[in-house]
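User: I'm writing a tutorial on reading structure tokens. Could you give me a worked example: one chain, its sequence, then its tokens, then a sentence or two explaining what the tokens reveal?
Assistant: Sure. Here is the example chain.
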Amino acid sequence: MSRDINNKFWDEELETLPREELEKRQLADLQEIVKFAYENAPYYKRSFDEAGVKPEDIKTLKDIQKFPFINKKTQRDTQGVGSFLGELAAVPEEDVVFISTSSGSTGVPTMSPFTKKDFDEFQDTESRWFWQIGMRPNDRYVHALNFSLYVGGPDVIGAQNLGALCIWGGTLPSERLLFVLKTYQPTVIWTSPSYAWQLGEKALKSGIDPKKDLNIKKIIVAGELGGSIDATRKAIEDIWGAEVYDFYGLSDIFGACAAMCEAKDGLHIAENHILVETIDIHTGEILEPGQVGELVFTTLRKHARPLIRFRTGDIGRIDNTKCSCGRTHGRIHILGRKDDMFIVSAVNVFPSDIEAVIREQDGITGEYLIRIFERDFTNKYAVEIEKNADNPKSDDEVAAEVTAALKARIGVKPARVVVHPDGGLDTRSEHKSRRVIDERTLDYSI
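And here are its predicted structure tokens:
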């Protein structure tokens, strides 16, 4: 199927469906997938029966609220039980053509299986996101994401299906990746926000000016929150002279489930594949669209392992109003992970709040490390930063400026700000950077 490269939509009918029609399609898919899960996945048969609900109870989209939640623990507890794919799987192994796994950073790695149809629809969604940010068949694209079991690895196929020339970069060392960027002059790259920023820094230090010597026009970032933090996105754009777009994915579902458009006002989520709810993190109470809470996703079309009311652990909100770009699918705004949020003096603090402040400060590199600890049975936090080599101010002056900025933005100041020289923090990484160290010994589960 040939597409008009001047049309900003990959699938204009789908992307601009009136809300009423979109929800009508969601309901039909929801009814089908809940029935399919109940009839084919042992876990759902058991849990629905225990909860006293049946697939026929789904008369409206809100009826999903009658059904029980699942989470990562559910996945881990059922994985490998009864079969290789486990009790959440709704198809036999011979119908599965691909599996990815989670990183296991919060427990045992969990598998995400795909049937051929699941996988093809996954890649069509990726093509849609690439097209949405302006990629076209005449682009050269470097996929600088991990291919080893990572669900984002195959997303490169979505770019190939679109017609772009694709370079499967993977996790190349920085020097080699910069060689690829300089030699092949690609126009689009996808990596993590921290690495995009660090790679630009390394380029400058090695005598390569990303704006003059390279040809990157668009940078896709994912895996960390930075792409949706205005200050971080601007810092990356300033180094590269390129537009930065944030993508959001879940190993539990597929590579990129949501992506920015040119408006950069949240990330459009593929509502033809995912039904979104927002709940109170403490009570599980359903919140109205626009309110901040934990995002809960139900897969509408993934048959290998349907996820019915999956608690993502991500804190955010969804905006269902029509975007200025013309798309009608809702936009999610992610604030952080429930596991990462901490409370200081009754204020909810996300690492993304701190990052936004650090990235805006002059005279420091933008690298940071957060330490959370206890003092007198209360939460405290400290921030470590790096001072630019040419910054004439003393460490104490820099620390005071950052402390004041954090207090003004977040509402609570850090217990201390530690200033290191440029390069003094061990936070730079080829992929995701570890920026939060929790030194607390008490249980602060929320």
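What the tokens reveal: The chain has a mean pLDDT of 92. The domain at 1-267+321-331 is CATH 3.40.50.12780 (Rossmann fold).
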